[in-house]
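tokens incoming
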């Protein structure tokens, strides 16, 4: 039997799995770590954290599997969206921590791009309609503007998974998904770096890694030193799997355009694979991991999907949390049980929640967007409000789906922690009107890495992996509940449009409030 390893470098941990070529999961391991947040809205990580986590997770997975290393034929590696990428010097040593995807410090650079770069031309080249601190190129400009000494030392910017692959193989490359996810420097039409945009923003083309490769490309073989650490053979092929959310789509069997996948955990990453970029909808656009030069990943999603239900639990469900610690039901399960006991139906008896608890990215792109609970009355209980929070995540998904403007076929795919609740999965179906299928294994990106590694090494082909049973049976929408949700969804969209001006005003008031609170000088009333 032959085996493959799939490793995904995440924001808070690195996970590896080992599978056989029939699609059976043999062993896995997760190594966790933290994000550095030195200032509000800053988020960065040293690459040594990722490399150490990767090496430990692969070594432990191989050890748990107990298979002959001669039979392990490839390692596929994907990673988090690494924002700026790791600035490395001429000796390939990190100059500073990587500004990762959640870092929001580049607001001034966003304003500069909007003022000095032709927006229509930027969209034409990159496929992206919006300029936002989310994008890696704005973070690169921040380093250029604020850290000139580090800028002088920097030879190139290398994304997390590509840096880890260099550490294992000694080979430099960047996959199309990571290059495209930088945003402003990648030409989605030619699948190359855009010299026009690099020159316009004052960034040398030499700082962009080369070659740019497909996510089924063997970048190199394990060095003898790396192989010894991992418990594998020197020369074992290492494949660049790309950005993890794209690899997750592959792991759920998406090899053709027209299929919609949403990965919903703390946040939501929802995307449609298409042959051409979907422009004018505020989507994040970059090449798909499989057939990167022919397929495009059009991405949207809520910044605080599962995070708002966690916030609700931690803030208002202390009783359920205490009961869980004492051996009772999981707090979320207890809240769902209470909603069922009260027979709470669509709309939570007149409640609508806006889930913008940390601003919002695509498709509305508004850092000032606020969370809202609308319609409260004395009839509502904790269970009603929790139910409405779950519905809000479903509305956010429907909004993302509608932004693609496409026929999505017979079903959509949803992965992530939300799929642990059958009731919530049914709610997604009822709100969106689509049947929902969920993965059987909770390892979507890793599974995609395995598939891409198998295809890249020639051990597997697309027909082989499409025979793997990766998805469960579809959950069909209830027509009556969908009809009710249509009306609530209309209210959900209207509330934001009606209140968006007030949200901006509230942000300004909050800043005034913060300034007053920090002023220690006594103020006398007159």
């Amino acid at each position: 039997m032959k085996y493959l390893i799939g490793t995904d470098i995440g924001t808070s941990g690195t996970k590896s799995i080992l599978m056989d070529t029939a699609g059976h999961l043999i062993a896995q391991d997760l190594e966790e770590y933290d994000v550095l947040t030195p200032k509000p809205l800053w988020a960065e990580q040293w690459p040594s954290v990722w490399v150490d986590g990767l090496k430990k997770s692969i070594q432990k997975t191989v050890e748990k599997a107990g298979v002959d290393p001669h039979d392990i034929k490839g390692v596929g590696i994907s990673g988090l969206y690494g924002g700026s990428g790791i600035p490395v010097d001429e000796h390939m040593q990190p100059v500073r921590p990587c500004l990762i995807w959640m870092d929001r410090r580049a607001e001034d650079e966003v304003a500069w791009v909007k003022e000095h770069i032709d927006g229509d031309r930027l969209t034409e080249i990159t496929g992206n309609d919006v300029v936002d601190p989310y994008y890696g190129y704005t973070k690169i400009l921040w380093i250029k503007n604020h850290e000139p000494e580090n800028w002088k030392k920097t030879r190139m910017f290398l994304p997390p998974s590509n840096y880890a692959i260099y550490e294992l193989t000694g080979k430099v490359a960047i996959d199309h998904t990571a290059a495209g996810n930088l945003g402003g420097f990648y030409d989605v039409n030619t699948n190359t770096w855009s010299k026009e945009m690099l020159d316009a923003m004052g960034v040398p083309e030499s700082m962009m890694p080369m070659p740019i490769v497909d996510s089924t490309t063997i970048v190199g073989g394990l060095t003898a030193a790396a192989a010894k650490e991992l418990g594998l053979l020197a020369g074992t092929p290492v494949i660049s799997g790309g950005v993890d959310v794209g690899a997750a789509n592959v792991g759920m069997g998406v090899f053709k355009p027209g299929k919609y996948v949403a990965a919903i955990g703390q946040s939501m990453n929802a995307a449609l694979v298409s042959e051409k970029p979907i422009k004018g909808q505020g989507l994040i656009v970059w090449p798909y991991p499989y057939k990167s030069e022919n397929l495009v990943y059009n991405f949207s999603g809520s910044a605080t999907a599962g995070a708002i239900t966690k916030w609700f639990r931690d803030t208002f469900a202390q009783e359920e949390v205490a009961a869980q610690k004492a051996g009772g039901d999981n707090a979320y399960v207890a809240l769902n049980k209470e909603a069922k006991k009260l027979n709470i139906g669509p709309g939570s008896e007149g409640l609508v929640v806006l889930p913008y608890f940390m601003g919002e990215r695509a498709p509305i792109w508004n850092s000032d967007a606020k969370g809202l609970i609308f319609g409260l009355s004395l009839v509502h209980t904790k269970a009603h409000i929790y139910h409405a929070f779950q519905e809000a995540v479903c509305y956010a998904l429907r909004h993302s789906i509608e932004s693609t403007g496409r026929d999505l076929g017979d079903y959509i795919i949803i992965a992530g922690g939300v799929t642990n609740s059958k009731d919530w999965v049914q709610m997604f179906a009822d709100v969106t009107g689509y049947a929902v299928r969920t993965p059987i294994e909770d390892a979507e990106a890793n599974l995609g890495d395995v598939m891409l590694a198998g295809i890249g090494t020639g051990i597997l082909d697309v027909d082989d992996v499409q025979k793997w049973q990766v998805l469960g049976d579809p959950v069909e929408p209830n027509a009556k509940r969908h009809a009710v949700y249509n009306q609530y969804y209309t209210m959900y969209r209207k509330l934001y449009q009606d209140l968006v001006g007030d949200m901006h005003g509230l942000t300004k008031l909050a800043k005034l409030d913060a300034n007053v609170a920090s002023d220690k000088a006594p103020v006398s009333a007159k």
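note: The chain is about 40% helix and 20% strand.
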